[in-house]
């Protein structure tokens, strides 16, 4: 029986939205081997993530759906990477340096946000957990990223966040770095107290804030 | 005047224990009671190494007493000392990283999420019989994530547990005696993670999310299966300690993780069974509700009225919670960690005043820190919490 790419893509979308994690990689591989352009597959996966995101923002979906769709997206991305020449990769819409500051080893919220940002076209440098302030600053200098995303589940991160702000100021990078924090130990009230730009408890809200920042920057230039 | 009748402040007409029991029954006491969870804060307040504080009970308790003398007195002692990694792991069912053992000796302890439970373990729970099944489940899991008992079989683990529990009972009784002598009430005699929440941590968030989406019945049935023995163990330990209250950790049952529908269908059945069993045994369950619980409160209204404490940590809107469930449960909380660390005493006092006026209206409220007091809280902010209860909290 001849494999129909269009049917295969419909099945892929259905599996993605039904959270059928086990069958997704095989479906993605088969689609590419059958001639589907990797960009089309990426676009289909991005539409699925957007659909989950809309339902999350509407309060229809919660963390389990977000986590599983993120994992599925990672699996699809890995398949796409295996079949893509790095020179032909889609242009990224922005660069984010992401991590959990020194004194905290929690990674869940940060990793979910990282996957969502990648799915929405950002280049994400996820630096992991317990990251010293100087490492964040070095990475921002190295990559030229305009966004720094910091995750904080513990108040142990407050001093390292202050230190990051100070180091960025001393290097003249503070004005061109948008700092957004998220996690259980953060509140809107700490934005001014720590000299950062934004705070969120919601990965999608964080993404919207950064997308709007990128749009504003593009409009200005 | 006996210890039980001791008054903390001049205007008080009740002891702290009477005040606490009144608010649990949603009655109006003489004033709003206050509580602070100072376990993680105390070593930084007195300037000692966290590694020494967490491993040596005398060092721990001297620091706790010092904080109580410097900041207090307040009404309710939130006893959070685990004093051994084994007991901490047994209660929290997460891999603990301890200062002085796994981390430098002067930093805060942390927990690390590692997957140690397989999907087949749900089936083991269903097939293994009900006899002490929650204890046996914990004993089966602990050697997989707790280095101190790695490789231990049940026969070696059980005597270790029993020794640790009897040591805990002996030390906690001593601690409680001191606090009672000061006129304080003790929050709970036992504390542990609920079965549903234990699974969430044990499976790790990715696998557990799949379980929630694809194997709802399996998770629900396994949680329910462990509930009775879980509740019985908690009640037994609390009885040994002479405290008629039990604290239940529900770290992963909030709407910050699962939907109200998932809560009602998967998590609530075991929570209800546990709570009812504890109440039937004549004790008060305190639900430790980290995260945002607002949309779950409608379901929680089914639990017996005037028998449960519900503790919030700064994520649940306390003022709406008062409207949603204030006529059914005693609300506890929720001065946020961020405010205690970065805010000013004026800011803290203003927030506490509002909590007292609105959430405390008519009784049924305990003014407290949202979950734990952070290590970097300002002492003057903690005093502002305690003093707010005295300044604004009297009902007559």
Number of domain modules of chain A = 2
Largest sheet of chain A: 5 strands, parallel
Q: What order do the SSEs of chain A take from the amino end to the carboxyl end, as H and E?
A: HHHHEHEHEHEHEH
What's the number of extended β-strand segments of chain B?
Answer: 11
The tally of helices of chain A reads 9
User: Can you give the helix content of chain B as a percent range?
Assistant: 40-55%
CATH class of chain B: Alpha Beta
What is the CATH C-level name of the largest domain in chain A?
Alpha Beta
- Fraction of helical residues of chain A: 55-70%
Descriptive overview:
- Chain A has helices at 5-17, 21-33, 38-57, 63-82, 108-119, 133-143, 158-170, 190-194, 203-220, and strands at residues 94-99, 122-126, 147-151, 178-182, 198-200.
- With 221 residues, chain A is of the alpha/beta class.
- Chain A has two domains: 5-88, Methyltransferase, Methionine Synthase (B12-binding Domains), Chain A, domain 1, CATH 1.10.1240; 94-220, Rossmann fold, CATH 3.40.50.280.
- In chain A, strands 2-1-3-4-5 form a five-stranded parallel β-sheet, sandwiched between helices.
- In chain A, β4 (178-182), α8 and β5 form a beta-alpha-beta unit.
- Chain A is elongated.
- The mean pLDDT of chain A is 92.
- By secondary structure, chain B is of the alpha/beta class.
- Chain B has one domain (3-392): Alpha-Beta Barrel (TIM Barrel).
- A nine-stranded parallel β-sheet of chain B has the order 5-2-1-11-10-9-8-7-6, sandwiched between helices. A two-stranded antiparallel sheet of chain B has the order 3-4.
- In chain B, α9 crosses α10, α11 packs parallel to α12 (260-280) and α16 packs parallel to α17 (379-392).
- The two termini of chain B are 23 Å apart.
- The model of chain B has no long low-confidence stretch (mean pLDDT 95).
- Classes of the chains: A alpha/beta (221), B alpha/beta (396).
